[in-house]
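Example 3.2
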Amino acid sequence: MNAVEDRKTPNGTAAIAENADPSRIGEAIRRVVELTGGMDWLEPGQTVVIKPALNSAGLFPFTASPISCAELVRMCLERGAAKVYVADEMGFEHTMTKHWKTGSFAGLDKDHTIKSFKKAGIYEAVANVGDEMDARDRIHITTFREDGWRRHEFLAEDDENPAKRTNLSAQWLRRQLKGADKLGGGTAIRKYLPRLFDRKLKEPIPGFYVPKLLDKADHIINVFRLSTHIWSQYTMAIKNWVGIMRPDDRVWMHQLNYLKNNRHLLNDLSKHDPIRTEPLYTELIADLHLVHIKKERLCVADATQIILTGGPDGTDHPFCHTNMVLAANDIIAADVLGLAILRYGTLLAPDGLLGHYEPQPTGWVEALKGLIKDLKWPEERNLFRGTDPKLCDEEFSNWDWVVIQRARELGLGISDPNNLNLVFDEKDSPFAVSPEKREWLTKDARRVPKYKL
């Protein structure tokens, strides 16, 4: 019995379909959702929030694919969803207006996120589905600012298991800032930047502001993209949740952008171990899923085009055409398989990097130096450049990325390769995956982790 027929699809199921025909991407998206078990969790009259990756106003693959968003809206409406929201909050560098601290809503006509939905093509694609199905009143494209955020405190009982204790706290962040190693070398001297969440509290309480829209939704769909990222090395399903943060919380978290993580200490490894190329703030990203993880039903990505250098808003290399789409019912499975596709691009794809890479900037100063060089000498490197070396290391396990280690610790999804259920479309399907890609993805996604949690 295949995954489509078996509605008791296990958690940790991730599916891949291959498609080189741009006119059939929507069908391929539908197919991988079916292979993960479909949308049986959605009952008529319920509400769904589709959260696409919209860091900027750039076109796909700098933002989530309009086709994937539109097809998922269509599928939700077909199942009788009373309301489908498509919502995000752009990167804080794009939305630092007079309302940036509290995330106040300026109106649908003035909001930068709404404008970017339109520029990226997502607004039109989703609206067209509403027109075709005579269901515009059941679709709402918005920003999390419209409903706003509410304070969420992690209670004492969450601290019973130290491994599952949230890092979203003032004390944790202060400790990390003391004597931390910079990615570019040397020791950081940084003063702690307080956040509004902790104001007027004698004892800061772990927590953050969460969107009220996610509270009232019955189900959440994560529509991510596959890309390298100059600050966090890669961005996929887990990191997509940075977009749910209130802008002031996001600024607070980014204090750790250029500091090395300390995962090597758990494994008695050298301070020069490759694991340390991920910045400290990756230890916070998985925690953002703690509040609504039980509502996160599906992760979907159009991976027909992926970004192999730079990101999120630019690149110094042409897009790699992998011609794949993926879906998963688990955020860890989604990232592990997404990384396998990204590594296929960096190591094996004919139009990929073929194992060659350049280091990413290790701070704003270095990044801006590259940008200034571009202004003077166009042949030099630009701001959004470089690839983390672990992506080009054939022996590195996708399960060992810090953000995935943290998600595993928190129990946000499957814990190891033995729990990963990979599904490929059948050989006689128009979306069958080539034997070469099947072999690569399976081997790479199942590589045993080296680091202990």
